Amino acid sequence: MILMMFPVTGLAAGTFKISVSGPSNIYAGDTVTYNINIEPGSAPGGVLGFQGTLNYDSNVLEYRSHSVKLSNPWSITYTSSTKRFIGNDDSDGSGAIKSKKTVLSVTFKVKSVSIGTKTTVTVTSVTGSDVNRNNSSASVTGITSTVSKPPSGNNNLASLAVDQDGLTPSFSPRETNYELKVPFSV
Cα separation of 60 and 107, whole Å? Predict the structure, then answer.
């Protein structure tokens, strides 16, 4: 698939926006998904085509799969070996992106790395075109995720204290039902 961009003299080119969204906290061994989003910004009439390279640290994230989020008249390809994606409206421009759209989702497995490791997922080498076939520049926003300690699976009560005796049964971390007997005057 080839993305064609035709400059047209006399028309002002605009800037479109490309962003990467995903989790801010990730956990070793988990599967996480990052979305590539396109917004027309000041691109006249919307975005007709785009291409770029997804950048991520392969020491932290291992590519698993991707899924295209726009359908006909759009054709979008992602090549995992080069991390390159290309999107093109194959119609007369009627399918131009005129509001924020998720165009591609990429799924990774988080490798076993140190807690606190930060990894940024972003896009570089971005070009695009608007409906007037002008080359459009892009403002890019990536996301930084931090490898965090997974939440504890232990949801047991640590302790339970009352001022008087009368709690039955005696405290146990796994017990979920207690009865407390109090004097009638309370």
Answer: 13
